[in-house]
Each structure stands twice: as C-alpha cells, then as structure tokens.
Design a protein that fits this description.
single chain; mainly alpha
C-alpha cells in the first residue's frame, strides 16, 4: 500500500539526483572543426568521382554510398551543434 511513497519516490529521487550529477563530456571546438573539414573533403571527393566521365555505372556505387554516409554524418553533426 505504501509502495508509491516509500519505494518508488525514493528510487525516482535517486535516479533524478544521479542524472543531475552526471558529468557530460563535450568535444572540443577544434575536434568538431577537424571533423567538418574531413567530411567536406570526403564529400568533394565523392562528388568529383560521380561527375567524372571516365567512371562507369558499376563503379559509381561506392561514391554514392560514401556521399550518403558523409551527408548523414554532416546532418548529425549539424543537429548536435
């Protein structure tokens, strides 16, 4: 009968206090800039491969996959900033 007031409330308070005292580690600005530069280079490289006339359709699969993954990584990085 007293479960809510005796056990649940205490457990909830403990979880809340642990969450408040948790240390959050954020990346350095230089690290984010390096990551963004790397993603831009990968994106440019994939775009150049896709725009070149010497590459046939069968070998364009890898650049498309790379471009999709880089775009997803850039979007995640943008949303976290």
């Amino acid at each position: 009968m007293e479960w809510c007031s005796e056990v649940s409330k205490t457990a909830l308070n403990t979880l809340h206090n642990k969450k408040l005292n948790k240390v959050t580690v954020i990346p350095l600005t230089e690290d984010i800039a390096k990551m963004q530069d790397f993603l831009k280079q990968m994106s440019t490289k994939a775009q150049e491969i896709l725009q070149s006339d010497t590459v046939n359709g069968a070998t364009k699969t890898k650049p498309w996959l790379d471009l999709a993954q880089v775009t997803l990584a850039q979007l995640i990085l943008f949303n976290r900033s």
